[in-house]
Amino acid sequence: MTINGWVQILVFCALVAAIVSPLGWYMTRVFAGEKTFLSPLLRPVESGLYKLAGIDEREEQHWLTYALAMLAFNLTGFLVLYGLQRFQAALPYNPMEMANVAPDLSFNTAVSFVTNTNWQNYGGESTMSYLVQMVGLTVQNFLSAATGIALAIALVRGFSRASAKGIGNFWADMTRAVLYVLLPLCIVLAVVYVARGVPQTLGASVDVTTLEGGKQTIAVGPVASQLAIKMLGTNGGGFFNANSAHPFENPDALVNLIQMISIFAIGAGLTNVFGRMVGDQRQGWAILGAMAFLFLAGVSVAYWAEAGGNPLVHALGVEGGNMEGKEVRFGTAMSALFAVVTTAASCGAVNAMLSSFMPLGGMIPLINMELGEIVIGGVGAGLYGMLLFVIVTMFVAGLMVGRTPEYLGKKIEAKEVKMAILAILSLPVVMLGFTAIAVVTPTALSSIGNPGPHGFAEVLYAYVSGAANNGSAFGSLSGNTPWYNLTLGAAMLIGRFFVIIPAMAIAGSMAAKKRLPVSAGTFPTHGGLFIGLLVGVILIVGGLTFFPALALGPIVEHLSVIAGQSFAAGG
Q: CB neighbours of 545 closer than 8 A, spacing ≥ 6?
């Protein structure tokens, strides 16, 4: 590790912290329906959309109505994206004459982008037409991100309201998330990316002659527009197969920094929205503090592991950090930071080959996702995922003092605790269950690229990434098979909606409760004790659930490397 590396990491953290409050203030006004500096331009568009769709933005929805509207909207998006892929050969804006996408891969990709996972079992530049990239994938990047934001706002309303029947209007929340938050920021980001050298064109791929006299086809396309939302919306699906390691998607260190800030911006800002909406910004800062602690711990381990390098390579007389699978222009510090940022949020973008990380370096992205990606997390998903752990934490605190748990003046009763546990446990059931089946199924085993514990980690990482709606991959697993396309698609659906539905039930239940006055026995939820207890509950739940699987993968691989043992392919 170097001072320069840590300075870069701390500068990133400082920049993210600086935008939390202003972005939180802006989003709070947006979702309260208040006037913003963009209202003169966007309010007529918003009103026109409501009129066209027959929506009354002031109509409050019961939590079940809100959830059903969300499900219907996402089902429609899935069907449209699936159809675009299946018929892309007959559709326009296909200059490279891409063939129709296979049914199982179309299913996987449609589920992936609708659930904000963006797992890619294909190479974008060699599989998808420009129309599918723009009208299908990019549009779903906006809509899946807006869905997450809307759901987070609905849950926050549950905590902020008292004796209320409704938790907002899904259609209004969705529209405002896209119009006022995602679209304006993406326009600015896309212009910046184009200025830094990211392509934005509908022209066909370019054939060139290399300096050696060879022929090469360079893929281009509408990259900047998709890049902007893939980062801001924590989507992660790259236009190119190499994702953010590709120089057209990530041309320099400045763009790399902007992308990482984009990934964290809305997720961090929503914690401030939470504090403002419940009437105490300290509550939001406390949640962000717990997230920040877990994030910095993860970065420290990942950077230490990658900077320390491989003992097996050192034994050959080659010193230095582990640069295998990394871009020289980013180095170990920014590669480790990028990996932790994208897995702390539900963003599957990568600027390095995660399969080539040291075992403990690759374990941190795994842990981030296994915890439910609540360390900042996906846009919206991180906040409502963390609030589920807050409910469990307050239940534990109540048991410790023999008192009915409360949070923000609301009693937390059996219903809320059961719903929170159901949502939290749905992820490990899918992650570990599908992994256990895959590692004893010949069809699934044939896709593993490496033997030994690393091969087990490949499979575990795939299902953890899918269920956590992240979408990143170790990169050494051949996932484009009917088995993985279908099972990973199922994992994505369960990981998204089996968390969302209980969260919405909690929102409705909490909104209907009366607010209790603060008393001497009320546990303060804005200080260090609360942050420590919250972090402790998260780590205990995660450790008890996933340590055995981690021990079979990255931990035993790390111990093997220290002992001088490697697992040769075919061995």
A: 370, 428, 432
Q: Are 91 and 100 in contact (CB under 8 A)?
A: no
Structure tokens at 164: 């209320």
Return d(Cα 127, Cα 96) in angstroms, integer: 10
Residue 318 in tokens: 């080659």
> Dihedrals φ, ψ of 518, to 5°?
-70, 135
**What pLDDT sits at residue 281?**
94
Q: How far apart are CA 108 and CA 86, in angstroms?
A: 12
Q: Compute CA 354 distance to the chain's CA centroid, rounded to the nearest angstrom.
A: 16
Query: At residue 475, what are phi and psi to the nearest 5 degrees?
Result: 95, -10
Rounded CA separation 322/558 (Å): 14
* Tokens coding 212: 């050696």
Angle between helices 139-160 and 223-232 (to 10 degrees): 20
3-class DSSP string for 22-81: HHHHHHHHHHCCCCCCCHHHHHHHHHHHHHHHCCCCCCCCCHHHHHHHHHHHHHHHHHHH
Structure-token match 């830094």, residue found:
196
Cβ contacts of 34 within 8 Å, gap of 6 or more: none
> What's the CA gap between 298 and 376, in Å, rounded?
13
pLDDT above 80: residue 403? no
Q: Is pLDDT above 70 for 570?
A: no
Per residue in 14-50, pLDDT tens? Answer: 999 999 999 999 999 999 999 999 999 999 999 999 9
CA distance 184 to 3: 36
Please give the structure tokens belonging to residue 523.
């546990």
User: pLDDT for 154-170, tens place per residue?
Assistant: 999 999 999 999 999 99
